[in-house]
Amino acid sequence: MKKIRGRMDESILVCVFYGPNGERLIKRGIKLANMLDCPLYILTVDALPYDEFDTEKSAYVEKWGELAEELGAEEFVIRDNEKRPPAKVIAEVANQFNITQIIIGQTARSRWEEITKGSFMNVLLREIPFVDFHVVSVARTVKGNDGDDFEKGVRCYLVQEGEKYKIHFSQTKDCQIEGIFFKEIGTDFNNGIFKFMENNKLHQVEVLDNYIQDTDEIEGCIKKELAKLS
After folding, report:
1. Do 132 and 201 sit in the same domain of this protein?
2. pLDDT digits over 34-45, tens only?
3. Are both 128 and 167 inside the same structural domain?
4. For 129-153, how does the pLDDT look when each residue is reduced to its tens digit (9 = 90+)?
5. Rounded-to-integer distance, Cα 118 and Cα 120, Å
């Protein structure tokens, strides 16, 4: 049962996209909504129709819906088969529900993407200048598929070396992808996982002694970004 809120002059919208950070954003939103005693809405936007979501994305959406019900959100809005830019959709939903505050996750976008396409936050500020934004960083600690612990994540960059991609901890003009590196606990080498965002989708690849193991996924993401610019 939804809680009857005392204040209707404030309303919060949590924007969740692909990946595990959505649950964290929703919980942050409900905490703020309880503090302000105001309504909370949850939104996810996807270019694909709902019936074409893969198993992982469907599981996230189902979990978000359960959280929305459990925590007393006013509504969980799914905008699927959406061809418009996400910022346009967020602005439309914000107007529909008289949103005054928006919570979004911080994306690990590379510097060259910022230059060529602009900051997503700047786009949102132009589309929705009348609301307050709360930008929440991505989770800084993770566990692997086998439960292995990783150290606190640090920002790093991928640089191509021949047919390989190596992680660097300082940004140069040769950097192609920016993300977060989680080093395995108990190793003297840079082994672990590298997480990054591409087109609002979270990707994860294995790192072994500084080098990315699945180069196909990295090259696929780079080709998609270059195709958008052509």
Report:
1. no
2. 999 999 999 999
3. no
4. 889 988 876 554 455 544 456 777 8
5. 6
